[in-house]
Amino acid sequence: MDPDLAAKLYEDGGFLIMKDFPEGAEFGIDMHSWNTGSKFLGVKMIPAGLHFIYYSPVSKEGSLAPRRGFFLNFTPGQIVIQKFDKQTEELVEDVSEEENASVRSNLKNIDGNLGPYPYQSWKKWVSLSNRISSTSLARLQPKCGPTISASTEIATTENVEGLAVAPPDPDTCINFTSIARQKYPHGASPAEITRYSMDTSYQLGLFIALQDSIEEVLVELQFSFLCFLVGQNFDSFCQWKQLVAMLCGCGEALLKYPQLFLNFISDMHFQMQEVPEDFFVDIVSCNNFLVTSLTDLFANIKEHEDALTQLKTRAISFENHLTKKFGWSFNADDDEEFAPTIVYD
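RESULT FIELD:
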């Protein structure tokens, strides 16, 4: 790293100090993780902005516990001090004022025990998280504490007809926006049911109506992807899949929200850089849901002659990139499983 850049990062970057963190555990920040040594005390030179901190304690037998983590928004030069609780195996902010003052005054003396933030992947992380503001983070993460793990539920569960299901607790759940299962308005005519079953624009409109801004659709796309990718929360992956399917199935909305779909394709481009080829294959059906969804998106953009020229150009570029990278074909087929619902009068 350039010495001038390193000096600036040390001066302006944040510090995460972790007291009593166990040796041999997994620790990670954003896109990188390591197994800790006996002298490990935290991370230095953390760029200002949103980050995801995660860790997996290790048992006496040497096996790693399920990953848990939390988002943290660093301000320039901020020093965050946390302590590992051996009873709960959680990182907590239960540090006395005396300990806090001691660490801050001793920062340069423990410099050798702090790992530098992996700056080479900073731009990649920003491209995956840049839409998540502090306000959005406060809305989405569990209210009683920011920890996200494989067992953290999401608060979008809808009641199954005929069964009494307790509503999810927003204090302990990731608070995603529910995606309507019914894609057409109540009282819709058979023609309208057919139309909205082929075009998810109405479903998207319901989702947007629950948000303070259209941008929040892509905020949840990024948040759900990261909660799965680095937080290893599978329910978040399911939410991400539903968001992708809803956005890819839109027709009318392409004309109403062109900037949303331009940004959607850009965000998907960056997300696709972080996953292996078989990541999206359903192990039961062996169908790649993403190919199916993106085939709909590309076809919808091509079919809408009034769609923004820039959107058409970006879609063609993204389609070509995916074909070259993964070998995927986006030719629509006649598979009845994915045929639209047609209702007759």
